[in-house]
Amino acid sequence: MIIKGRAIKYGDDINTDVIIPGRYLDLINSEELASHALEDLDPNFFTKFTKGDILVVGKNFGCGSSREQAAMCLKYAGVGALIAKSFARIFYRNAINQGLPIIESSEAVDAIISMDELEIDLYAATIRDKTKNLQFEIQPLPIFIQEILNDGGLICSLKKKLRC
Amino acid sequence: MGQTISEKILAKASGNKDVCAGDFVDAEIDLAMSHDNTFLVSTIFNEIGVKNIWNPDKIVIVLDHRTPANTIKTAENHKRIRKFVKKQNITHLFDVGEGVCHQILPEKGFVSPGMLIVGSDSHTTTYGAVGAFGTGIGATDMAAVWITGKVWFKVPETLRFNVSGKLSRYVSAKDVILHIIGKIGVDGATYKACEFYGNVIENMSIDGRLCVSNQAMEMGTKAAIIPPDKKTVDYVTSKTNVKFNVVSSDEDATYEKTYDFDVSDIEPQIACPDKVDNVKPVSDIVGTEIHQAVLGSCTNGRLDDLAAAAEILKGKTISKNVRMIVVPASRLIYLAAVEHGYIQTFVNAGATIVNPGCGPCLGLHQGVLAEGECAISSTNRNFKGRMGSPDAQIYLGSPATVAASALKGKITDPRGVIE
Description:
The complex is a heterodimer of chains A (164) and B (419).
Chain A: E1 2-9, H1 16-19, H2 30-35, H3 45-48, E2 54-57, H4 69-77, E3 81-84, H5 89-97, E4 102-104, H6 106-111, E5 117-121, E6 126-129, E7 134-137, H7 143-151, H8 154-163
Parallel strand pairs in A: 1-2, 2-3, 3-4
Antiparallel strand pairs in A: 1-5, 5-6, 6-7
Chain B: H1 5-13, E1 24-28, E2 31-34, H2 38-48, E3 59-62, H3 72-87, E4 92-94, H4 101-107, E5 116-119, E6 133-136, H5 139-148, E7 150-154, E8 158-164, H6 173-184, E9 193-197, H7 199-203, H8 206-215, E10 223-225, H9 230-237, E11 257-262, E12 269-271, E13 279-281, E14 292-296, H10 297-300, H11 303-313, E15 323-327, H12 331-339, H13 342-349, E16 352-353, E17 374-377, E18 393-396, H14 399-408
Parallel strand pairs in B: 2-3, 2-5, 3-4, 5-6, 8-9, 8-11, 9-10, 14-15, 14-17, 15-16, 17-18
Antiparallel strand pairs in B: 1-7, 12-13
Helix pairs in contact in B: 2-5, 6-8, 11-13, 11-14
């Protein structure tokens, strides 16, 4: 899987309450949910963001509650992938289950700045910063996680398995 | 090679003789808990298209987050959950007013040592207080558990915490765990399991231990286990007849890191806005004006907590500038608090009692904060916007600190309030 997009950068310890505030958790409509993504972190997010952009964030992204809507709203908004120094564990699982590619690389996060053009290759396990002409090696995701991402998330992956 | 509690529980659940930190396992789940987000889990379950759930006896559903329903949308979601429960013959539904999930499960005897429990709530780590491996998962993972009864885990490294010393009066379990989080950081235990040892933990009541294992989630932990002792066994056997085996770590178990804390000299601790590791001794911030004081939640809405606050408020009146909201963690705790006279104390002091559940912790109802307002709360999160306006401020403290602060209208050291 190859993902291309521009970087949009934020800091450390971004919690699920600012990714999608509790007041929106009973929304089911994907467009509505997406429209509130990162609202309490950056009210101007959608003025900077174009579909396919890659969020580049610090450590412990997605800490806090287990609300899957945090991964869902980013996926529905069209975030292409997330690169973080580290993720909180439930968010990490939720992102995979939503088919949202996530990569941990402190080195890449330190080097990349907002609006850099990025290319992530999950098979080759690399991130390329085309603007800076830099390349970062990343820890490849376990095969079964790559398969879930390739299927587009755990729902599709389970459907496929159950049909077999 | 010796094993930690988490390694032993995950080995057994995955049918392995032993497992090591770093292994991936497919583990069989003993119990699956979900709350108001069951509406999302059931939507995903239906989308996958399987007819029947894996085991209607092993699923517990507790409606607690928005109860009684605060909007028409919530009411519709609750209605869908009840219909789903009926259709799937799910045995255990705790509806409006029964209490908050992380009190209901231990209180009703669903949790015993050695179990592997998942919940679609991050604070599922609470069950570690009685020696279970409890951990949070999202809605899709939960739907998968409902279908297969299994979930994949990476076996975590374990951090060992030895907590010793003699706590000062009015320094409680909440202060101890906030102190630890302040030192370790909000991601200090991410992807790791924790085990808590030491005389301070041993001397804690089950209520105190539940607080520790709950609040410990705020350092990112996957499981927050307190090795079972006689107190644990007495508690669990008073709630259930189900047989269980206590799981302890081996003497030569491998810990990624060991932390030693002597908490003899700690003051009451406060987690300041808006990160849970922004912890300061209360003396650093006494005098900060507050508008709301919240006593309750899955962290600190238990009988010990209500007792500590009632002791401070007995025969007194809270500041006229403060709304104090009390949320007993369950119906049983509510009744016990009535019997002990705590509820009468709170009402006489000017507090508002709301039904057992999550109360205002999630910022949806029962005491939402306005822009520029400030709250002290015994809940577990002080994130920006957590309790209402993103421009409100939340300080976290113990039940005693919450009560003392409500009394004075500003953040107050509880040790100075009682003669």
